[in-house]
Design goal:
This protein is of the alpha/beta class. It has a domain at 618-707. The protein has helices spanning 17-45, 52-83, 119-136, 153-170, 187-199, 217-229, 248-272, 287-293, 312-322, 344-360, 372-408, 418-421, 426-454, 458-461, 465-498, 518-542, 547-558, 560-567, 570-578, 585-588, 592-606, 618-625, 627-634, 645-661, 668-675, 678-690, 698-707, and strands spanning 108-114, 142-148, 176-180, 205-208, 214-215, 233-237, 241-242, 283-286, 326-329, 336-338. β1, α3 (119-136) and β2 (142-148) form a beta-alpha-beta unit. 43% of the residues are buried.
Length: 713
């Protein structure tokens, strides 16, 4: 904390304790009043229930869940008012001078961790960022690093070739770097950490991207100037908009995030101020602060709760704040983009990883020295998934109670509550609670549309009033079906994590085939469908009065298979695009970066003369046979002259097996080991060109034939 007193005073003191206290007091007051009102109504409704223990559990879970809804609604309410008039003046942008161009830039690394990603897309995105920075005239302040943790041998070679090709195209030799880690320890956090140990001291800042990220040059330059203008800032997080959505599922997510996002971001910044959070990408970080204070602790025990921290971003933001640095969000800053999972199944797979990572934060909630807002971020991350389990438990208990009443003949509410004294029936009281819940759920959507209507040209950016209203209504129906499906997914993830089932680091699928994959949908959602059908049957027989109240949940579960399969369709996504539905400003009027990305991908796809390296082991084979590819790969390897003889012999055995039987004889990790060994690559290249063809597998004869004219044995 001593760092705080060494920082020179700023010309404008952005952090005003009294202002921050007033803002947070307003948020807390709103949440407490709304939650207390709902909690009182539910408690009054359950007052005379004969099953006191069950009633208390239902009431406690309802209060918790209603409080979470109230907290979410508060972001929209306060964000809406913060955006009105002159807007919220308490943002990090206030620190910039009247002419931001007078703020000098500093050496900045743009780091792009990749893990078995689609190579063409990754390097097309990097190219768009590079060229956007070139247009700002500030390119000389930035270096680019592709940090590969890819485990597929072919992927490794493709990445190297794409790097060399991109560097030549852009004339960026010595400015775009590629590094392949030998050991993929600690996943993305370890990848970034390895980069910082090797090259971090050369840079004052780093901009961390994801494989699907795109950022405009102006946005990146603005981030550097924000950091330079505020020596207290340790991290500035942008809010990336979703781009490139093709399936119906991803288009709805893209639309809703772009439409509802601004008021939520304004609401977050309203109370977070300099105690913001880190989302793992599309953010700028002060390198020295990160190196000095963000070494991740090893959690006690084994995975999934112990071991290495999976969701590192929340923790790193908390550690920076503990060290006295500020963490800011940038509401209103555009030019920052990412992609979303194309299908519900891929969305759930990503949530599985995030769920385990967030639940690990239970260990850190009471760690010494953390700011109270940092603890709140960690706690909200835990509740983001565990609340689904609480919701499911409350629904199950409510169902069992009502079934029990009907089977035993117990009377509902034998003692009058406050509502009864006012002449309100239990049904009316339950209706009021249901209405209040729906208001909290959909208030943000209504305020977002109102905010858009009050913003000059806002509705036109989304296609006009009719398209916006139609999109919002369809998105609301989409959300009603999606919510119970995600409830069961998340509840299962939480329980499996508690029971010790960890998650593997899997590559995210970013494209889907243009066909309906019913088999995958049935395999994934059959449990949801069975639960929905059985639950509906139980209520229809034993508690028909509850059926109408439960219908939104039950309908979503029973429709899970067709919903998942049909929303994964690119065809339906194209039809909504042609109809002008779920369109966003970035889609109707794409910025230069997205136009460059699209043009590069289209050109690569149309270039029939370009070697695509498709097929299993093709790129791996080229690294051995093709002199150019071999040279590109070989120059990235280090010689190891003092290697133990037993290791040399091990590699020699793998080399001979590969030459005699072809790549199919080796496991992927063995091919990767050969690719990482300079001596092996030298010898294999020499042997395939000099050894008689009769002594090698047919695979190598075909590879040589593709490379040059066949030789006589």
């Amino acid at each position: 904390m001593g760092f705080r007193f060494k920082i020179p005073l700023l010309p404008f003191e952005l952090r005003s304790p009294s202002r921050i206290t007033r803002r947070r007091t307003g948020i807390v007051t709103f949440v407490v009043i709304v939650t207390a009102t709902g909690s009182f109504l539910m408690g009054d409704l359950l007052w005379g229930m004969p099953l006191r223990a069950s009633a208390f559990v239902v009431w406690a879970l309802f209060t918790l869940l209603f409080g979470l809804l109230a907290f979410g609604a508060s972001q929209a309410v306060f964000g809406f008012f913060a955006r009105r008039g002159r807007g919220d003046r308490a943002t990090i942008f206030r620190i910039l001078p009247a002419d931001p161009s007078t703020v000098p830039l500093a050496p900045t690394a743009i780091v792009l961790p990749v893990y078995n990603e689609e190579v063409t897309r990754v390097f097309a995105g990097l190219r768009a960022i590079h060229e956007s920075l070139r247009r700002t005239g500030q390119l000389g302040h930035f270096d680019f690093f592709i940090l590969s943790d890819s485990t597929d041998p072919d992927q490794w070679v493709k990445e190297e070739l794409a790097w060399v090709e991109l560097s030549k195209e852009l004339g960026a030799r010595g400015r775009i770097f590629y590094r392949k880690r030998r050991l993929n320890s600690n996943k993305k956090a370890g990848n970034i950490g390895d980069f910082l140990r090797r090259w971090g001291r050369r840079y004052r800042y780093m901009v961390v991207l994801d494989a699907d990220s795109v950022m405009s040059g102006e946005t990146i330059v603005t981030l550097v100037r924000l950091m330079e203008s505020n020596p207290r800032a340790g991290l500035v997080q942008t809010a990336p908009a979703i781009m490139g959505a093709e399936t119906l599922f991803s288009r709805v997510l893209q639309f809703s995030a772009r439409l509802y996002g601004p008021i939520f971001l304004a609401g977050l910044n309203y109370w977070q101020q300099s105690e913001g959070n880190y989302w793992g990408h599309n953010a700028i970080i002060r390198v020295k602060a990160f190196i000095d204070h963000c070494a991740l602790p090893q959690l006690p025990g084994r995975e999934p709760f112990g071991g290495r921290i999976l969701s590192h971003d929340f923790v790193e933001a908390a550690l920076l704040r503990r060290a006295g640095y500020e963490v800011w969000l940038t509401p209103g800053l555009e030019g920052t983009y990412e992609e979303s999972p194309p299908t519900l199944i891929d969305y759930a797979k990503r949530d599985r990883r995030w769920c385990q990572g967030n639940l690990q934060h239970t260990w850190l909630l009471f760690a010494r020295g953390l700011h109270s807002v940092s603890r709140l971020h960690l706690g909200m991350g835990i509740l983001a998934y565990s609340s689904s389990l609480f919701w499911l438990v409350s629904l199950v208990i409510g169902t069992l109670v009502m079934v029990g009443f009907n089977l035993t003949g117990l009377t509902w509410l034998p003692e009058p509550g406050v509502a009864g004294l006012l002449g309100l029936s239990a049904t009316t009281q339950a209706g009021v609670l249901a209405l209040a819940t729906f208001v909290l759920l959909f208030l943000s959507k209504m305020l977002a549309v109102l905010d858009l209507a009050l913003t000059p040209g806002g509705l036109a950016r989304f296609g006009g009033f009719g398209k916006v209203v139609s999109g919002v209504l369809l998105e609301m129906a989409f959300s009603v079906v999606l919510a119970p499906i995600l409830m069961l997914f998340h509840a299962k993830f939480v329980v499996s994590t508690i029971l010790g089932s960890g998650v593997k680091w899997a590559t995210q699928r970013r494209e889907v085939e243009d066909r309906i994959n019913w088999a995958e949908a049935i395999e994934t959602h059959r449990e949801h469908t069975v639960i929905g059908v059985v639950w509906t049957a139980v209520l229809a027989v034993f508690a028909p009065g509850l059926l109408a109240w439960m219908s939104p949940v039950l309908l979503g579960l029973m429709l899970s298979i067709p919903f998942s399969a049909l929303t994964a369709q690119r065809g339906f996504g194209r039809k909504t695009r042609e109809a002008g539905l779920f369109c966003t400003p970035d889609e109707l009027a794409p910025p230069p970066e997205l136009r460059d990305l699209e043009a590069t991908l289209a050109a690569k796809e149309a270039d029939t003369s370009r070697e695509t390296w498709t097929g299993r082991d093709v790129a791996f084979t080229a690294a051995i046979v093709d002199p150019y590819v071999n040279a590109v790969h070989r120059c990235q390897l280090r010689d190891r002259p003092n290697r133990a003889e037993r290791i040399t012999e091990y590699f020699r055995l793998m080399q001979e097996l590969l030459l005699r039987e072809g790549p199919a004889a080796l496991k992927p990790q063995e091919k990767t080991a050969l690719l990482a060994d300079a001596d092996s690559m030298d010898r294999l290249h020499r042997e395939v060109w000099t050894r008689p063809l009769a002594e090698m597998a047919p695979w190598w004869r075909n590879a040589l034939a593709r490379c040059t004219q066949p030789r006589a044995a």
